[in-house]
Every structure is written in C-alpha cells, then in structure tokens.
C-alpha cells in the first residue's frame, strides 16, 4: 500500500492532460500500472530513511489509512461503473427498446462506461490490490422495474444511475486526494458522468441540473438518489438568500456518502 506515495510523486501528469483518442487513452491506462510498479522501490526506501522510528511508524499508519480509503473508494467506483456499463450494454442489446434516434447517444455513453471500468481496474491493480469482480446485477430490483421492455423505465433508471454516479464521485473526492494522479483522473471521470446525467435528463424533458426532489419527475423508488439535494447551506452561506430555495439548492450539487452509494447500487445487485 506504500505505492500511494510513490504514485503521488512519480505520477505522469502528461498522461492525464494530453489530447488523445479514447483508443490511445485505453492503451495509456494499461501502461499506467506498469510505470508505477517499475518506479516503486527506490522512492519507498528514501522516504523512510529520512525519518526517525517514531515518525516512521506514524507515517506508515497514516499511509496505510490513506491507502485503505483510496482503494475502498476505487472499489466502490468500480461497482458503480460495472453497473452502468452492463446496464447500457444490456439496453443496447434489447431488440426494439431504444428508438433509433436515441441509440447513438447510448452507444457513446456505453463506450465511456467501458473505458471507466478499464481505468479503475488498472488503477486498483497498480496499487497492489485485486479489483473486485463484477457483481451479478438484477436491474429489475427484485421485480420492481422492467427497464429492458419499457423505454420510459429504462430512461428513468439511466437518469438515476448517472445522478448517483455524479454524487458518489464527489463524495469520494477526499478519499482519493492522497494520490494526485488518481484524483485528477477521478475528476475527469466525474465531469463526463455529469455530462451523461445532464444528457439523459434532457432526453427525459428535465432540466440538466437537479432541483428539489428532482421536481417530482422521478418515482418515489428513486428518492434515495436525491436525498439531501434540497440543502441550501454551503460552508455556512445560505445560498437561498438572494434567489430562493429552488435556485439556491440547484446551484450546488450535493455529495453521496460511500455507504449511501453502496446501498443504492446494492438494490440492483442480485
């Protein structure tokens, strides 16, 4: 787990900032883990030689805690990306479900989710941890939904999954902050997830952003996805002071805790 500090200092920033095609990006992702492993030994030794024994123990404990938080956050993100990836794959394979005009949108979103899964698996592996296996999903949530025979339901769950992903990535930002490279990549995934969410919401004739309880345009079964979005207090400032609660709450998107994100995903895991 000491690989955290190594990746933080030797991360290849150019990988995350250069303009590449998605196919090139996937190739770079595969190289990312190998570069980190090759770089690991000398920096790890140098870091501890410069400290006394007490400080070293503190450093080890702190690093271990940060490493655990980082890998837990990445494993959670991987479950959510597994869910989205399989959801869109299944939807696209369901004959007659998605109208022709909309297929191109979901085909592109599906490619993005596949790329996210590939990156997260590579990142987790580079930290010396085995990526979690893909769960067996039940997108009916025990028979409560029929997303692959009813397009309206498919769109509702697509919006719920994307909105969950956006909030979940924000909720885990602090847990991945110990690693600069992974934090930057997570933020890049987060912004794409937000674009997915906005696109799907607009396809459902919603606004691109989340409002109070989503304006009642989602079934009660999805309430957990939007819990807390009515908040208007940000760092002690009441955002509703000048524009009212609706605009105040919508101007700041809320986070989801890891436990809440896992609980939402768990509804669709068989």
TrEMBL record:
One Pfam family in the UniProt entry: Ferritin_2
Matches recorded under InterPro entries: Ferritin-like_SF (IPR009078)
Top-level taxonomic group: Bacteria
Protein name as it appears in the record: Ferritin-like domain-containing protein
Organism: Kaistella solincola
